[in-house]
């Protein structure tokens, strides 16, 4: 496998991960995305699960990006390993900001609990 083929495979992995994550965030189904993007359910399934990775028309990725509420070029940036910018509305959305803050706090709490568990385990071993 050449470097270009490997990078391309990794790019499609990133696209699939982005689609799965966004569908989970928005609670959209494959059928919802297919309908909004005006693409076949098979195409959405292939992209979401990185089945049959191959070159796609730019319009396909743009349609899926739009259907998921992203700027049209979002998934193209993901495919090429670039850091896409979030949609303008997402940047200013107070609910999304609050969710991000909660996610960070939850991760901090998980880290603290894990640290406490390690300390307790270490104390148990010394007894």
UniProtKB/TrEMBL annotation:
What's the domain of life for this entry? Bacteria
Q: Where are the annotated coiled coils located? A: 99-126
Alphabetized InterPro entries for the sequence: Lambda_DNA-bd_dom_sf
Coiled coil: present as a keyword of the record?
Answer: yes
SUPFAM superfamilies, per database record: lambda repressor-like DNA-binding domains (SSF47413)
Look up keyword Coiled coil and say if it applies: yes
| Keywords of this entry | Coiled coil
What this protein is called in its record is HTH cro/C1-type domain-containing protein
Give the originating organism: Pseudonocardia adelaidensis
Q: What is the lineage of its organism?
A: Bacteria, Bacillati, Actinomycetota, Actinomycetes, Pseudonocardiales
């Amino acid at each position: 496998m050449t470097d270009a083929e490997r990078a391309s495979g990794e790019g499609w992995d990133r696209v699939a991960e982005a689609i799965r994550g966004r569908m989970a965030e928005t609670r959209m189904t494959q059928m919802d995305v297919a309908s909004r993007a005006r693409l076949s359910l098979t195409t959405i399934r292939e992209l979401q699960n990185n089945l049959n990775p191959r070159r796609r028309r730019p319009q396909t990725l743009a349609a899926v990006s739009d259907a998921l509420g992203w700027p049209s070029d979002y998934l193209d940036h993901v495919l090429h390993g670039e850091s896409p910018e979030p949609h303008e509305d997402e940047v200013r959305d107070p609910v999304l900001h609050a969710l991000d803050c909660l996610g960070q706090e939850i991760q901090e709490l998980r880290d603290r609990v894990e640290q406490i568990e390690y300390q307790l385990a270490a104390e148990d071993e010394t007894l």
